[in-house]
Amino acid sequence: MEDKIVEVNFGPQHPSTHGVLRIKVKLDGEIIVDAQPVIGYLHRNAEKLSEMGGYPKGMIYMDRLDYVAALNMELGYVMSVEQLMDVQVPERALWIRMMMVELNRIASHLIWLGTHGLDMGMLTPFFYCFSEREKILRIFDEITGSRLLYNYFAVGGVYSDITPKSVEMIKEWYGNFYKRLEEIQSIFAKSYIYVQRTKNVGKLSAEDVLSYGITGPMQRASGMKRDVRKDNPYLFYDKINFDVPTRGEGDVYARFLVRIEEMRQSASIVNQVVGKIPQGDFYNKKYSKPMLVRLKATGESYVPTESPKGEFGVHLIGDGSSIPYRVRIRSPSFANLSSIPTMLKGYKIADLTASVSSIDPVFGEVDR
Amino acid sequence: MNLFFFLMSILYGILKFLHINFIPYSYNGIPVGLWIAYLIVAAVEVVLVFAIAMVAVIIIVYVFRKYMADVQNRIGPNRIGPWGSLQLIADVFKLLQKQDLMPTSADRLAFKVAPYIIFTPVILGFVVIPFGNVSILNLMVVNFNYTILFLIAFMTVAPVGEIIGGLASHNKFSLYGAMRSAAQDMGFEVPMLISLISVIILAGSYSANDIVIAQRVIPFIIPEILGFIVFFLAMIARQSIPPFDLPESGSELVSGFSTEYSGMRYGILYMGNFGFMALASFVVAVIYLGGWEGPIFPGTVWLVIKGAVFIIIFLLTWVSLGRVRIDQLLNIGWKYLLPLSIINLLISAGIALYFGGVF
Q1: CB of B339 within 8 A of CB of A137?
Q2: What is the ipTM of this complex?
Q3: Cβ separation A348–B325 shorter than 8 A
Q4: Considering only alpha carbons, which residue of chain A is nearest residue B67?
């Protein structure tokens, strides 16, 4: 029996590991006997580097954590800094932040959907998803000046105001988005092959989810209605109507449906926010740019936020100087990845790619 | 009239016209001049077959790239030649320049031989495709009574090459690709052959030309719709294109058996795949859509039109479908296609008994 088992390394260079994940897989024929994830190939010292500069300088490292949803990462950090220093943020800035974060959530989920299609052997949806994401990136380019890493949120507000042109762009994008999303969804959901490949694959029960600390769409696909935006509202999520989509099955197909529905909810949030942005300052004048490097703080703070991958937050400890004593990042992908052995045991090789891509790991965030 | 004798009589006429006379010498009673003419014609025919296969590959690859790009909202190749039509030739030259890499632990002889085992049968398959109306000019390089058996024999050689290549690469991913290739071909070749037998029963002959002539009234796709479905799916599986691209599955096995192949060896595998697509579409057109039969246009035009329909369907499945899992693939092969092909065999046997063989 022993000699029948083959050990194969999937990764760190492998097309379906979404970066540099390595999975040590023991195979009995096509069936996975054991799977162990090995991480650390993209370790860039994000935490330690943030502890070496001033508080505002940590922002650029946060951008590079989950590089496909950079604004969500910035939000977690900037809110933690503001809580630590009791910074008052103008309402307009908060509404702008909310809009940008939801747009970025959609962009992140679109990337996931496209690469998930590639993993399932479908080449075409990748391009549809990326062309939809491109429209969102153009909006970001108009507002922030960057396309991938924005460095847009600042302590006390945002760096630049939204322009009338960008509002028009958002409205135009919103007008087509539902139709396009419906199209992309139908490529997957109406394909018998895709549905058969993903149903009852990579199952996680609610107990597994709790024991691994899994959050985000994976948790909601396993029947737990948990969303930081609803349970512990930050920004103005309590003034906005949106649903938290959940599914009970806990398989790859349920995660697919949850993410698709989340995109719809996020688009509706963006539409509501655009109508509600008040006039006023977009940053707190007390924290103008020369002031920022001299910020000092004492104490601890942690603000949980809902990033596209799950609960994200930054634990800050200040010792009274202008650089933070400790920056601890709670990254959702890291916790979600730990479910790999449970998700893969007993399934086939082809289910490995389906299950791993359903986690939606981004390795800048896992290895931080 | 056979293509061979047609070309040879043309050559002979030219020689006569030019008053070139090398006939006086003879060997074993055969004039040497005739023998030389025989060789020249054979060489011309070999070049012709190769050219047909290569032109088909170039056109298919171009159409594939442009069509796929169009489906995916891209432009596709547009730099080299008019509308990017010379892109494949540029690619071939690029591949020829590349370093010939081979894993140090590979079985060198088997590794080198495998691409040719995949490529050669594809070219040889074109030898027995009836390209034109047999009553006007038999555009068939070799014509004998068992052409369909010959064709099927060559179409089933290539998986052996895939298995040899996968085993020789000494790579676990390649090994898995080779094993999947073996499982896939076992699952699909049996139903494919059974559905072919029912065609042979209806036509009452093993000859591709006789099968085409037997479809003068009704193409076999109508009485043999089940057999057509089985045969067509088997052709998709044999080409390893989605949804049955398990031996190559890019995202899980990193191109499977062809992982370690690079440079021109990979180019040969690539051309073999697309050449097989042309061959498969011609074979399906001959067996189920009546080959060169058709009004107004010459037979060759009809065969190309019918073949193009199948190529478009192959490309459509390629760009739009995902990949099935290995257990689902084997289920399709053994649980659905095999019973279907046997039912089809019984139906066609009944038709043959009732109508007395040929329609």
Answers
A1: no
A2: 0.79
A3: yes
A4: A124
